[in-house]
Specification:
Helix content is about 30%, strand content about 25%. The protein has about 270 residues and is α/β, with parallel strands linked by helices. The protein has a 7-stranded mixed β-sheet with strand order 3-2-1-4-7-8-9, sandwiched between helices. The chain has a 5-stranded antiparallel β-sheet with strand order 6-5-10-12-11. A hairpin with a 2-residue loop joins strand 5 and strand 6. Helix 2 packs antiparallel against helix 6 (about 255-270).
Length: about 270
């Protein structure tokens, strides 16, 4: 049984402040170790549940955060950026399920460090009228190629979004949001126990898991930026329409197209910062 695990950092237990996700400080070094340990808990759970092959995608920021030498040796690691499928790179139609670890709520929703792809660039993203978080995009891509979203870990705000958009997927709540940078969190040890147990349960039932997504192709995507300058840059692309100073819209035929275009916009805006 083949399982894909995508790992972010904002939804990890004990992480609740932006500095913890930025390179070059002691807080980041602590957070990336916690991220690696939650990845290991998910890997162990996947094998407990019957997996025979696990691939892990490092999916935060520079996408090179997981401490490779500390990662469970049974898993293969995808790291670095840019890459065509971003946070879901490594998945294919032969996988039996996908698990998202350390994820967070969507941009403009409540939640700890809520954002979609780039907190610096995007105020909000909508796909076919649905407010899109990262699970919307990447769980949606998995569904498009026939792979079910099995389980997602993060805060309680993320869990509510998953329950609405992927009702058959399991939600693993490791902390409760008290604000954008405040949380009531399980201890890292307890969070890892919970993740391992719930991922094992989800993987065991992968054979009967429902393939579902909140949006189906074709996709109409609306991206609202924090600054009109960013929309100025995005509007230079020929496929873009611009309904107002801060927003661009585009049409694609697949989730892969949406992922690629949004990733390119994020890289473009990073060059302006």
């Amino acid at each position: 049984m083949r399982i894909m695990i995508s790992v972010d950092i904002e939804g990890v237990a004990g992480v609740n402040e932006t500095i913890q996700g930025r390179r070059g400080n002691p807080e980041y070094e602590v957070a990336r170790r916690l991220m690696t340990q939650e990845a290991n808990a998910a890997i162990a759970g996947a094998f407990d549940g019957g997996a025979t092959d696990v691939i892990v995608a490092d999916s935060h920021g520079p996408m090179r955060n997981i401490i490779a030498e500390d990662l469970d040796e049974r898993a293969r690691l995808v790291s670095g950026k840019p890459r065509p499928l971003s946070m879901i790179q490594g998945i294919d139609g032969n996988h039996d399920g996908v698990v998202l670890i350390g994820y967070h709520a969507a941009a403009s929703n409540y939640g700890i460090m809520a954002h979609t792809v780039s907190g610096m660039a995007f105020h909000s993203i909508e796909i076919n009228g649905v407010r899109a978080g990262e699970p919307t995009l990447f769980g949606g891509y998995a569904a498009e190629i026939g792979v079910p979203l099995l389980a997602v870990s993060g805060d309680d705000c993320l869990a509510r979004e998953i329950s609405e958009q992927f009702p058959a997927a399991g939600t693993i709540i490791v902390k409760e949001a008290l604000g954008a940078h405040a949380a009531s969190s399980l201890s890292p040890a307890k969070s890892r126990e919970l993740i391992r147990r719930e991922v094992a349960k989800a993987v065991k039932s992968a054979g009967s898991a429902k393939v579902e997504a909140p949006c189906t192709a074709p996709l109409d995507v609306s991206v609202r930026f924090h600054k009109s300058l960013y929309a100025d840059a995005a509007a230079l692309l020929p496929m873009m329409k611009r309904p107002d100073a801060h927003t661009v819209c585009f049409h694609v035929d697949s989730h892969a197209g949406a992922i690629g275009t949004i990733s390119a916009l994020s890289l473009m805006i990073a060059a302006l910062q």
